[in-house]
Amino acid sequence: MDWQELTNLTQGQPFVVERVRLAGSSVAIEGDFELPQLAQLNVEDQVFITAFVRCHGSIKEMERIFGVSYPTIKGRLNRITQMLDFVETDPAPSRADIIERLRRGEITAQQALSELEGPT
Asked: What pLDDT digit, counting tens, does each position of 76-90 carry?
């Protein structure tokens, strides 16, 4: 069964993968595995996102490929964006990092406290 069949079979319902086998070997891992967010999208949205990435984010190129207008592309991107959690690429420093920077004199005690308290 390929990913398209699996996506169609589940019809958007959440599911858990319980067994993973490494291709070409007999190694299998069992447990509860959640699929990545992009794999949880329906087939049409996965194709749309793949095209968007291949177009390097060019909405003009997406208009040409799908034969639809800018607002249609933008609307679909907005809809898909709402379905995906934002992945933090610049996580907050750990407590140990903040304390170490304070120890080295890179930040003041007030800055350290502010960072430890987090955003307000």
From this structure: 999 999 999 877 777
